[in-house]
């Protein structure tokens, strides 16, 4: 399969955790005629993005939100990148975790955000995920009928080494549930996604929550899809909505053959190693 039809849902985040999933379900019903293969949701799509909320909304893998997402994937026979949600482990540690489910509703990927978003921009955005979250420590790549895909969460995508390791493991598409803000969004969002696509000659899909100016953290929105050539296939505004693109996965091979950046790396001079 070389043509992947992907729908990116830029959703609003409601205070009621399960209402966010019911709303995603209604949007999937509305998409039925579109015959999409993959649906992507935003970072923390079922939890208003505020550090005190993470432990309150967190559930273990297999909890009610996880189960409802698995069921949506199964019911609609799609791959579902279920954004991210707060996950709690047996020791009570809380993570920002992204799950992907296959068409049978089986979990095929899990990524715990590895780079916690702790920033303090003078006169701008301040945030400290590490107040309540623990970082993951894995590079996440998974198999689909369309080939391998990579998965990371928002701030993770700023670290070129992580995306490169995904590509070294075979990823041709990288999924990024994300939620940039009103300081770094206008400055860095688009250029970052284009850079990562160019560096890695891969499709990149960044899915963000719709903007809610009354929330404690204001999302930039602007969900974006970029091709391996660095073209923006589509970018949304700040409103709630859905964007559908058909990704021709043969394009990755064509770009990598014609402009062989990955082959031209001087691995005798430098290399990247996963610990
Ligand atoms: N949720 C996040 O990780 C936000 C990342 C972000 O805004 C950035 O500038 O990086």
TrEMBL record:
GO molecular-function term, one example from the UniProt record: omega-amidase activity
Could you tell me which CDD domains the record lists for this protein? nit
**Which InterPro entries has this protein been placed in?**
C-N_Hydrolase, C-N_Hydrolase_sf, Nit1/2_C-N_Hydrolase
Q: Which domain of life is it from?
A: Bacteria
Pfam families, per database record: CN_hydrolase
Q: Which GO biological process categories is it annotated with?
A: asparagine metabolic process; glutamine metabolic process; oxaloacetate metabolic process
The alphabetical list of record keywords is:
Hydrolase
For this protein, the record's SUPFAM superfamilies field holds:
Carbon-nitrogen hydrolase
Start and end residues of each CN hydrolase domain: 4-249
Name the record gives this protein: Predicted amidohydrolase
**Which species is the source of this protein?**
Enterocloster lavalensis
Lineage of the organism: Bacteria, Bacillati, Bacillota, Clostridia, Lachnospirales
């Amino acid at each position: 399969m070389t043509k992947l039809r992907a729908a990116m849902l830029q959703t609003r985040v409601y205070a009621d955790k399960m209402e966010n999933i019911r709303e995603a379900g209604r949007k999937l019903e509305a998409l039925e005629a579109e015959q999409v293969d993959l649906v992507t949701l935003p970072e923390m799509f079922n939890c208003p993005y505020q550090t005190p909320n993470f432990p309150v909304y967190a559930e273990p893998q297999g909890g009610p939100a996880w189960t409802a997402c698995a069921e949506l994937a199964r019911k609609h026979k799609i791959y579902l990148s279920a954004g991210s949600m707060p996950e709690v482990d047996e020791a009570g540690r809380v993570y920002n975790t992204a799950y992907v489910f296959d068409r049978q509703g089986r979990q095929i990927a899990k990524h715990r955000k590895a780079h916690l978003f702790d920033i303090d921009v003078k006169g701008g955005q301040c945030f400290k995920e590490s107040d309540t979250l623990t970082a993951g420590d894995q590079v996440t790549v998974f198999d689909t009928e369309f080939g391998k895909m990579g998965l990371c969460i928002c701030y993770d995508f700023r670290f070129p080494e992580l995306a490169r390791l995904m590509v070294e493991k075979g990823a041709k598409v990288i999924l990024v549930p994300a939620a940039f803000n009103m300081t770094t969004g206008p400055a860095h969002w688009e250029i970052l996604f284009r850079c990562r696509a160019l560096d890695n000659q891969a499709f990149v899909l960044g899915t963000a929550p719709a903007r809610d100016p009354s929330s404690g953290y204001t999302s930039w929105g602007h969900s974006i899809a970029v091709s391996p050539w660095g073209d923006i296939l589509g970018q949304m505004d700040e409103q709630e909505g859905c964007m559908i693109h058909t990704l021709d996965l043969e394009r990755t091979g064509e770009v990598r053959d014609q402009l062989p950046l990955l082959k031209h790396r001087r691995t005798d001079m430098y290399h990247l190693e996963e610990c």
